[in-house]
Amino acid sequence: MVGRRILYVTQSAGFRHDVLPLSVQILQDLGRQSAAFEVTATEDSSVITREGLTRYDAVVFYTSGELPMGEAQKAALVEFVRSGKGFAGIHSATDTFYRWPDYGALVGAYFDGHPWHQDVAIRVEDSRHAATAALPPSFHLNDEIYQFRNWSRDNVHVLLSLDPASVDLSAAGVNRSDRDFALSWTRPYGQGRVFYTALGHEAGVWQDTRFQQHLIGGIRWAMGQQ
Q1: Could you tell me if 189 and 59 are in contact, meaning their C-beta atoms sit under 8 angstroms apart?
Q2: How confident is the model at residue 225 (pLDDT cuts 50, 70, 90)?
Q3: How far apart are CA 186 and CA 141, in angstroms?
Q4: What is the DSSP secondary structure assignment for residue 126, as one 8-state letter?
Q5: Digit-coded pLDDT (tens) for 10-33
Q6: What domains sit in the chain, N to C, each tagged with a CATH number?
Q7: Rounded to an integer, what distance in angstroms lies between the CA atom of residue 26 and that of residue 1?
Q8: Which residues pair with 47 in a beta bridge?
Q9: Claim: this prediction has a pTM higher than 0.85
């Protein structure tokens, strides 16, 4: 029996990703097949209220832009995670709520461009974590690759990072000079847990068993199951 419930929010106030409907289907299927969680998907952030969130163990964002959430809703989301619940962000979750600094602090970074959209090499930095345990030490994936601002290794635990040798570091739009391009991380937030993965732009990534295992492990960890 599925005992955990997650709220999957796919509202787009900025760029809308074509993969969102497929992501809903796959995430719901993964939850059922693994018996790890039940997924309620919505494109309406008005369901995020203090009372509404009591039904869930984690909130997952694949969002963009300034979502139409009021101050009470924002406080409810922060309180939800701080109280010991989980938050997971997928891909453009970092391209969300630029005008709400507490959200950036929650997720751990803000999107700062995607210089590469290609096959890249990805390094596993912590092979013992639930989100990476099923992955090889290094693997290739074809996806849109983000870089970040308002991000520091001091504030997160990096799980995956880009192998800089697999891309052109002189490409247009590369803003980081430290060659440090994290692609997934975790962080504590009050009594709660936050998991983020920058992967997931392409349909082929969502259909990739490696990404699915990464996502299930990260969400389960955020809910305290790992």
Answers
A1: no
A2: confident
A3: 21
A4: -
A5: 999 999 999 999 999 999 999 999
A6: 5-222 (3.40.50.880)
A7: 19
A8: none
A9: yes
